[in-house]
Amino acid sequence: MPTDPVEAKEKTVDGAARLLGRCKRLLVLTGAGMSADAGVPTFRGSDGLWNNHKMEELASLDGFQRNAELVWEWYYERRLHVATCDPHPGQRTLALLQQHFPRPGRVLMATTNEDDLLERAGVHPVLHLHGSLFDTMCSAHCGWRVRDHQDNSMSMIPCPRCGARVRPGSVWYGEQLPREPLHAIAEFDPDGCLLVGSSCLVQPAAEIPPEMAMDGLPVVEINPDETPFSSIASVSLRGTAKDILPGLVDLLTSHTVRGQRTKSATDPVPP
Ligand code: OAD
Questions:
Q1: Alpha carbon nearest to ligand 1 atom 37, residue
Q2: In the chain, where do the E strands start and end?
């Protein structure tokens, strides 16, 4: 008898919730696909930025040294575009997961995404493995860095600390990831992972889910397309972040949220 696709999907989301619901320390790792439903383009995939742009020109130190104006123009356009986008329900629901699952402090949010939509959705803190689209920093790595939300006005000044040229604060190809977020993940020592909207191609972040899966830990993937990780994932949910996350988070937090509602309903009214 053919399987009803709706029923099959519900069963899978349910199965994913049962697997992740047992975790004591859940790592949520999101990629560029997390913001696709908010209107921010991904890098790979059918409408990905790398189909029409050259990553070696726009996201590498060599490219910046060859044509800094072109790189800054591209970052400026992306900053402006992200500022016009609003977080979608999947992103907002991750804030609930962080606050409630099954107790606060049990979820660590990390992302290779450079935008600020998770923060604007109420997720805090967010570990940015690839830096922030809104950071401007010294290209000579003297340590000077600012959050430059407004415009690109900082881009044309020399570094106030050492005089070198300033550049976008993203992690580019061939560069090391900042150590702090990787240390924070290692220290958190996750026993399960929810992976959303990642092509699983950009190292070293892409190593984290397969390493966890090899250790026998549950890893659930959400992605409309198959990825190199899909066959290893404990559950691979085919769909978008906006469609799948609200239901999954509802299942994961329902006991906690319901418990809190019941408790507050019976709490004595303060005099
Ligand atoms: P990618 O752009 O490589 O991959 C995005 C993934 O999101 C793909 O697997 C898509 O299938 C998936 N996707 C698309 N729409 C989705 C949706 N609505 N819901 C869920 N998933 C969706 O992004 P990352 O793997 O995060 O690096 O890689 C990010 C890095 O690649 C960036 O930091 C950038 C780029 O090259 C640099 O610039 C150095």
A1: 172
A2: 26-30, 107-111, 127-128, 135-138, 145-147, 166-168, 192-196, 219-222, 235-237
Phi and psi angles of residue 93, each rounded to the nearest 5 degrees, phi first: -70, -25
130 belongs to the catalytic site: yes
Q: Report the pLDDT value the prediction gives residue 136, as an integer from 0 to 100.
A: 92
Question: Closest Cα partner for 107 from 50, 186, 23, 177?
Answer: 23
Nearest Cα neighbor of 135 from 68, 198, 65, 79 is 79
Encoded tokens for 258: 């319901």
Q: Specify the 3-state DSSP secondary structure of 41.
A: coil
To which residue do tokens 């950009």 refer? Answer: 202
Q: For 183-203, how does the pLDDT look when each residue is reduced to its tens digit (9 = 90+)?
A: 999 999 999 999 999 999 988
Q: Which of 130, 141, 149, 255 is catalytic?
A: 130
Write out the two tokens for 173: 């190809």
Check if the beta carbon of residue 193 is closer than 8 Å to that of residue 107: no
